[in-house]
Design brief:
homodimer, 8-stranded parallel β-barrel, globular
């Protein structure tokens, strides 16, 4: 077992005593946290707890003389104490009245493989798997539970949605170890979830995994019984089916509703939720085929199934129709399933957004998505984890912000990105106020900057195909992934309006009209929806090509400014060194992106930069 | 240990008894082979052997009544019997007089890692390594020895030139196992060679690997003593230094001559040869830098060192200045080192030439290289192995041709590709003569066809960067490998003449003049040496862009014709099924290449095909 983790405390620096082994319920931990915080930080204040089990995750905080009273449910009191600490650290006024989470399910999906690797992980190896088995330091798991609870996350799916052997044994021979792991996180209000291989019956003596086959149904029912007997509060299963070569109901000519419902019925008696991912598309597309359009896929497949899913199925939909790109329109599926419980899926792991080297604070992106979508469209939120075995948990110490913020958005989807970022900064670092503002401002602008120097105006997929890092504007162009920009000497982009692939027609009328018109479409999404000549005039009068050049020069300049700003901060070590080293890399990356993308478009268009800046041949 | 190999006999189908364990010298094996062949195939003929040890590898064959007499050296008699069998099978007249190899060193370089993988291997896993140790079936190694001896190959380097742990232990703790392995191949006239990590002293308690450091020199001398004591006929060491992040003398500001000579002196007392690879270039190039030109690298580094190498150093030079591309000019270094023993390096493993799926018979390529270079420029030939654990040894049963032919070219660099290919066909398959001709003709044209449908006119590097398979015309364009085509809306290619990077000036005058002129330069290399507009007129009057389109349509059509031709052959199973399955894949590949490359250039140039054939948008 690796002990190489550095025991770093992320946004909880004042909770500087580990939660001891043997604390078996949230109230006990809540009392411990209050004592730790108020004795160390704001000495002498007392916190009293009133337990009302029916309140469950809810809580209320009131001042009581010099101290506080937190009333709440079993987990609520724990959430209450963390909210209190967060609020004091951030200098916020205490929330008034009873607080409860807007989304009952607030899930982290870990793409951890049992060999210890983490798919698209940028913070080191798995914290709990190695060499095909569980292998962890219980103290570190408790510390992780504390971090998750401190921002109100209540479900942790511990294995990759791409279920590689031997992870299927988490559902049978490894169940006792799953329960041991679950027991460590239970007092923090965190329940486990398991990713499941749809074809598992085939690996267990059955000749089919057909969801309409009675033997298959019975097998899953019996299996569920064994599983929940061992882990009684397991939250449910997460399934990636018929997607990127994973098995699924299509093999038996069954719909995804039939597939999901079969599993849902097996786990329903135990209160399990069946989370079914809607990330399904043709990953063997022919680039010559200009009619098949990957962003259409999820809507085309699932919209006709609205109303066909059992009530304990949750359809988990990525925020955009592609795959966690820097800029995508909100997935049209999110508007189209009023009768189906939906989860909105984000990705904290910075797969396409800088690998936890480049800064990319996500709250502004989420704010836009939630505003465009309407928070009430979904009943749950999920996010792909950015955690790993690195000493600072996240690869980049600032990447912690995204996990922190995700938890807060699960409770309050109306949150203001600026305030959430400020709260993270103030909880994490004790700095002069002006430095806190500087850091918060760098983070707040980081997504826009990253967007400017990478793929322009919603084009997406200009990264290197294997690593998903660094510029390769034509790297995906002739591949089978359905991810093309179709740049040529005349123009760039794909017409996704009615005259093209028709993707824009999947939206409700008000959005469909906006997206259909190059004049109305937001600049940021222009090349997502339209194929345009380089001479196209943007709203501000610039040509499309000039806008591309300008954005790339600006984005790079902004990255350089971020670097200058970070250098002025008196961050504690090793955070300072880690952040500055990665910032160096980011500035190099930004220059590379700027030059590659500008050169790429100049090579096609033959058009010079109006301002005469250097574009390489 | 895997027993999954199929005991297939490649070009030796009539030697259908395994060479028994315990035959300890070539003469014994020669007698066994003669008996096997003549009793089974051409019953009743007798072969007598006359051993003249001083003849070593040489031999002479004469008819003697109904039978034959083979006189020769220790290994010569074995080579003689194989030549006799090959000649009878191919219907050739027997060679007259004493035969001896033109190149004394005829080496196969295996890129086998001790974890069982083979770098750039397309015929399955390693035949002798697995799980960090030797793990093989001795019968299979004997069969491989027989194959190597049957075409006169006398050195086998058994581990990857990129020496990954624990392969450095082949030089210390694993020496007894190396000797055990060597002993199996010794009776076949095959000596082992080992790839060596230049930094090995650092892993053994020394604080430096500086070749001018006496302690380092002494360490290597002592090590050599131990090694040759254990494996007395070890052929020598193979070293990849200061190349693609391998350690080397540069770290100590020493020249490659200093590095190589230090090792050469350590192994000289034991008759060892130090093979030093000249494949050294800047693999962290900036694509913006148009002056640094990777093909220049080896000449720039080594030419000034001519005359500085010890006599038991052999500088191993790839045939082209890049890296085994489909079409390259001969490396200028091969003309520039008259005082240095050189080895010419080929690659049987079809890294950039179809992964042993697409047909690519190499003799025509080698014929061109040897003719352009002059066979006397080198004293040795080496080839990267295409062998693996697959049942048929080569992935594709026809890929066997390349190993077969390489052996023959090592003996006779004047060989005619057509005759070599015909000999392989006739030795491998008993088919009606017309079918033999059909197969030989398909193979003879396969390189030209592959060239036509892949990268045009010497451009190189249009493959996918990680796999080196399938088209990605801009995949390498902005990377650090120094491998650019710089296509834009005006033209394509790099000016490597005096006015450009100056690479063409590295050639002797007669070649430099040819390459310097777009009018004189061979069409196949036009875009290797020149940057030209799409409207450039080729020698035959076509425009450059039209020639690109034509070649790609023709190449694809030729692949389809090859497929039709193969279908007519009554090949034995499983060869037939394997060959046809792979041919299906090749035809798909050819279509993909045709369409991607044509579309790529039409997107840039905006120019239509004159013949109105389909080029996708």
């Amino acid at each position: 077992m690796s002990k190489s983790w550095g025991n770093r405390l992320a946004w909880l620096p004042k909770l500087n005593r580990p939660v001891p082994e043997g604390m078996n319920n949230p109230l006990e931990i809540a009392a411990f946290e209050a004592e730790t915080y108020f004795q160390s930080g704001n000495s002498g204040k007392s916190v009293f707890f009133e337990l009302y089990p029916a309140m469950k995750e809810a809580y209320a905080i009131r001042k009581d003389g010099d101290g506080y009273v937190i009333s709440g449910g079993q987990t609520g009191v724990l959430y209450g104490v963390y909210t209190l600490i967060r609020g004091i650290e951030a200098g916020e006024t205490l929330p008034e009245g009873t607080q409860k989470p807007y989304y009952p399910l607030r899930m982290i999906n870990c793409w951890d493989n049992m060999d210890g690797t983490v798919e698209r992980g940028y913070a080191g190896r798995s914290i709990w798997f190695e060499n095909g088995r569980f292998d962890y330091d219980p103290a570190r798991i408790r510390q992780m539970g504390r971090m998750l609870a401190s921002v109100g996350i209540n479900v942790l799916c511990i294995n990759n949605v791409n279920v590689h052997q031997p992870a299927q044994h988490l559902l049978d021979t490894l169940l006792p170890e799953v329960e041991e792991f679950a027991a460590i996180l239970r007092p923090f209000g965190v329940r486990l979830m398991l990713s499941v291989d749809f074809s598992m019956p085939l690996q267990n003596g059955l000749s089919t995994a057909d969801p309409e086959d009675v033997q298959v149904q019975d097998w899953w029912k019996a299996q569920a019984q064994k599983i929940w007997k061992c882990v009684p509060d397991l939250a449910g299963f997460l399934v990636k089916a018929d997607s990127e070569h994973r098995p699924g109901p299509n093999a038996y000519n069954r719909t995804h509703a039939q597939g999901a419902n079969m599993l849902a019925r097996a786990i329903k008696p135990f209160g399990g939720v069946l989370v079914w991912r809607a990330f399904v598309y043709n990953c063997l597309q022919d680039w010559r085929d200009t009619q098949t359009d990957r962003p259409r896929a999820a809507y085309d497949l699932y919209q006709p199934l609205d109303g066909c899913f059992d009530e304990n199925v949750v359809l988990q939909v990525k925020y955009g129709p592609f795959d966690f790109q820097v800029r995508e329109p909100v997935s049209p599926l999110l508007y189209a399933m009023p009768k189906t419980p939906l989860a909105l899926e984000f990705q904290l792991a910075q797969e396409y957004t800088g690998h936890q080297i480049d800064l990319f604070a996500m709250p502004p992106l989420w704010r836009e998505v939630l505003d465009q979508m309407g928070k009430e469209k979904v009943c749950a939120v999920a996010a792909v984890s950015n955690l790993g075995r690195d000493g600072n948990w996240f690869g980049h110490p600032f990447a912690a912000l995204n996990l922190f913020a995700f938890g807060l958005y699960g409770w309050n989807p109306d949150a203001d990105p600026q305030k959430v970022i400020a709260a993270w900064v103030r909880n994490t670092y004790t700095l002069p106020a002006s430095q806190q503002d500087t850091l918060a401002s760098v983070l707040l602008g980081s997504r826009k900057t990253y967007e400017k120097y990478t793929a322009p105006l919603g084009l997406c997929w200009m990264v290197r195909p294997e690593s998903h890092y660094g510029p390769s504007p034509y790297g995906y162009e002739f591949q089978a992934w359905g991810t093309y920009n179709r740049a040529d000497c005349r123009g760039v982009g794909i017409d996704r309006t009615e005259k093209g692939t028709g993707y824009a027609c999947q939206y409700p009328k008000e959005w469909a009209e906006v997206f259909a018109s190059p004049q109305a479409c937001p600049d940021e999404l222009l090349l997502f929806f339209h194929r345009l000549p380089y001479s196209f005039r943007m709203k501000d009068g610039r040509t499309l090509i000039q806008r591309i050049y300008d954005d790339h020069f600006e984005g790079c300049r902004e990255a350089e400014n971020m670097q200058e700003a970070l250098k002025t901060l008196s961050l504690p070590e090793p955070d300072r060194e880690e952040a500055l080293q990665r910032m160096d890399q980011q500035v190099q990356n930004a220059r590379e992106w700027r030059d590659v993308i500008n050169t790429f478009f100049r090579r096609f268009s033959g058009i010079e930069d109006e301002k005469g800046r250097k574009i390489y041949d």
